[in-house]
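Schema walk-through. Below, the input block comes first and the output block second. Nothing else is stored per chain. Lengths vary across the set, and this one has 236 residues.
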Amino acid sequence: MNSRQRRGVILLIVSVLCAIAAFFGVISVISDANSKVGPEVTAYELARDVAPYTKLDDGAFRKVSLPKRWLSDTAVTDLADIRGKVAVTTLRKGSLLQSDMIVEQPELKPGEQEIAIMIDAETGVAGKITPGARVNIYATFAADNDKEKSLSRIIVTDARVTDVGKITALDPNRDDNRDGPQEAVPITFALNPADAQRVAYAESFAEHVRLALNAPGAAADVPPGDRSYTLDEDSK
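--- output ---
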């Protein structure tokens, strides 16, 4: 083998080694990419806004494929999981559906209806009120003039809580919330129509609405004479 042939063989061997190195380099890059992205799974994205406590249907979502490692453990990957459930809070278009965004639709007794109101997260709930709890609902009303007196009143006794939503930051630009709470929790009650009207009125016109948790099994009824209070009563 002359020198020219030896150079040819050496160049051929170098070319083969470079090709093998390039091949393993590509394999390494692909493997690294797969390890970072991983297999894709089906998830669901909101196709439109969904109001709180609205029953969910398949048309509110669109299917998307995302790497499994990018999804949280609470991501919904099967629409069968939403059957018969309602939104806990407002679901925004484009958000990925999570299991903690939805709850089972509570069963109502004949003559009951559900109504949800926002309750001050600090003074009205304090983390102790949960679905199934029984509460008395208090409302405080400011005096309209100097001749009247500010009043605290129990508007509903033994109200059944069906759902407690997530703490929500209130809009600081709302005119009716400048001096009020900065965070609130949506609380849903199962009430008869008359009590539902009382709660709706209180949320609209009362300065504050608060909840008092009743002890399990304890009598929650309050005598008519003790259902309202003014500061003058303690000065008598």
